[in-house]
C-alpha cells in the first residue's frame, strides 16, 4: 500500500533526561525522574507521531550501521513506519541528540552529526513523493539536500496533486540557496521556535513572516514549549 504521508530528512535518536536543572560538579551523580529513547528529528519524529495516529507513513532518511541505527529501525518497524527508503550508511554514525529537560520546560541539548545530515536523494525518493498524498520535508539544512536537490521531489509531489510542508528545527529566514529553493513548492511551514531564531514573541508578526512569505509560503506555524501558534495564513489549502 502506498503511504499517505512521506517524511523526508533529518532522523535522529533522542536521549532525553528529565528533570535536569544543573549538571553535577566534577564526576558527581544526580538522580533524575527518568531517561527516554525515541526516534526524533524533523522527519523521524513526524513519521513516528503520524504512525501512532494511524496514518500510513514512510520515512526517507539515513542512519548509521550502529546500535543507535538498529534501535531506530526497530522502533519504526514496531510502529509500522515503512523504512524502504531509510538508508543504512556504513561510513557514518547515526545522528544523535542528548536533551537535558529542565523543570521550566526548556531543553538545552547536545547533538552529534551523523548519517541523516549527509543523506542523499535517490530517484526512488522523487518517485515516492510523486505517489504520496502528503510530503513532510525535514531536509532543510541537509548537506546534500539544500542548494537545489530538494526541489525535485517536492516539485514532483506538487505536480502530482500532493501537498507538502517543510519543518524547521529553528525558524531562521530561508536562505536563497537552501530552503528558499524549496518553499515555493509548498503551501505551509512548520517551525520550532528557539534561541537565535525568528521569534514571534520578540518580533512584530509582519517582520517575522516576511522572509517566508516572500518565498511563497501561504501559512507559517511556530511551536514553542509544545504549543503551536499560526503566525500567518495567506490562503487555506484543503487536505
Question: Would you give an account of this structure?
Answer:
By secondary structure, the protein is an alpha/beta fold. It has two domains: 119 residues, UDP-N-acetylmuramoyl-L-alanine:D-glutamate ligase (3-Layer(aba) Sandwich); 94 residues, no CATH class. It is built from six helices and twelve strands. The chain has an eight-stranded mixed beta sheet with strand order 5-4-1-8-9-10-11-12, with helices on both faces. The protein has a four-stranded mixed beta sheet with strand order 3-2-6-7. Strand 8, helix 4 and strand 9 form a beta-alpha-beta unit. Helix 3 runs parallel beside helix 4. The two termini are 20 Å apart.
Flag low-confidence runs: 169-181, 184-205, 235-239
- Which class of secondary structure composition applies to the elements? alpha/beta
Q: Based on DSSP secondary structure assignment, what is the total number of beta strands?
A: 12
Q: Compute the gyration radius: what is it?
A: 18 Å
